[in-house]
Amino acid sequence: MFPAQTYQQRRHDLAALIPSGLIFLPGNREAPMNCADNTYPFRQDSSFRYFAGHNIPDLALTIDGASGESKLWGDDISLDHVVWMGAQPSIAELAERIGATRGGTQAELSTLLKKHAKEVRFLPPYRAERKTFIAEHLGSAAGADEGLIRAVIALRSVKSAEELVQMDLAVMTSMKMHAAARAHAAPGQLEAEVAGIIEGIAISADGRLSYPAIVTRNGHVLHNHYHGNTLQKGDLLLIDAGAETPSGYAGDITRTFAVGADMTTQQQDIYDIVQKALTDSTAALQPGITYQSVHLNAGRIIASGLKEVGLMKGDVDEAVAAGAHALFMPHGLGHMIGLDVHDMEDLGEDLVGYDDKVKRSTQFGTRSLRLGKELQEGYALTVEPGIYFIPALIDRWAADGTCADFINFAALDAYRNFGGIRLEDNVVVTASGHRVLG
Fold first, then answer.
1. Which band of pLDDT confidence, cut at 50, 70 and 90, is reported for residue 379?
2. Which of 244, 262, 261 is nearest to 253 (CA)?
3. What are the structural domains of the chain?
4. For a FRET experiment, which of 23, 58, 147, 268 has its CA 20 to 30 Å from that of 319?
5. pLDDT at residue 288 above 90?
6. How do residues 318-360 score in pLDDT, each as one tens digit?
7. pTM metric for this prediction
């Protein structure tokens, strides 16, 4: 946790943006796997943690918009719980650690919320039990407050020096995970063996994975969490894995390498194109540039490189305008990162990644770009270009003649079993440009 003054300042800044009403920020509850006492690993709500710090279940924070008064709510544990859990800090002690006061019990909070239901402002609920709680206490017609959503996004988007220290730690641990995976991966192993090493390093750093790791020889499957394949010599192994620090900040790093061998000429050619897209896209980052423009330029780099190896043809700018490059990179170049690996997307992806000046594209590929708006100093984001050869997508485009003026479909037969390559770093925008985290 940060010092109490950090959380006090964050809440002060939020109240300044929302000067009326009762701001209600509930923490998460334990989620049972199969019975109440056997739960999934606890993960705190990130907005609650941003303003209240604690990674403890069954807490809630209220902030009076007019006065700025902050109260922490929850039940002190009983002696029965002490037997199983040991002594725990009281709610009053937890409140003091973040510069707030104790509000009362969960029952008293329920009474307060029902009494002031029309004044309560809250963020979009994403868990079923929270949706039920909101409906029971504030009414089934109650909706999340857009003003509060925008205020929280504005505050959480700009990372402080304290936060960047934590994000550097997350990336450094993530890089250790990747280095160990590369050193260990060998022909004859299951992908699961490599995945286990990765997760073990995250845990040994007193953290966890920031998302389920992708460790796959089938890199063309973008979110592939199956780890049951046996590695073969020369396979391209794509690993997309990040660590979460004890303070909750995420890393998100991707590397691709050949297992137990040097890359073939074919593999190296594609790798070099992706590396150039990563290097040039990162170099372009600075305040004032839109990330949508960086994404489209990455598309031009990919199209140009694929044209050189004979897989694309025609004018590169026209090809990207037509979306032809999306056959090979059907995802966005990156997203915000912070307390969430896809930072704040529970608040609304378009509200986080776009604004009145930059709207989300409707074109295949570019429409999957999570962050398109103008970058500001303090924004932390991922840069993750990739090239994938997805047989089903290639076959559909070939059959339909999609972008046939720009794609050499016949030449793609030699790449049907290629898989995919993605490379990813985490970057913060600085006053003078950018810095790669870690």
1. very high
2. 244
3. 4-157 (3.40.350.10), 161-436 (3.90.230.10)
4. 268
5. yes
6. 999 999 999 999 999 999 999 999 999 999 999 999 999 999 9
7. 0.96
What CA–CA distance (Å, rounded) separates 433 from 376? 10
Contacts of 210 (CB under 8 A, 6+ apart): 170, 242, 243, 244, 250, 251, 252, 341
Q: What is the 3-state secondary structure (H, E, C) of the chain?
A: CCCHHHHHHHHHHHHHHCCCCEEEEECCCCCEEEECCEECCCCCCHHHHHHHCCCCCCCEEEEECCCCCEEEECCCCCHHHHHHHCCCCCHHHHHHHCCCEEEECHHHHHHHHHHCHHHEEECCCCCHHHHHHHHHHHCCCCCCCHHHHHHHHHHHHCCCHHHHHHHHHHHHHHHHHHHHHHHHCCCCCEHHHHHHHHHHHHHHCCCEECCCCEEECCCCCCCCCCCCCECCCCCEEEEEECEECCCCCECCEEEEEECCCCCCHHHHHHHHHHHHHHHHHHHCCCCCCEHHHHHHHHHHHHHHHHHHCCCECCCHHHHHHHCHHHHCCCCCCCCECCCCCCCCHHHCHHHHHCCCCCCCCCCCCHHHCCCCCECCCCCEEEECCEEECCHHHHHHHHHHCCCCCCECHHHHHHHCCCCEEECEEEEEEECCEEEECC
pLDDT above 90: residue 254: yes
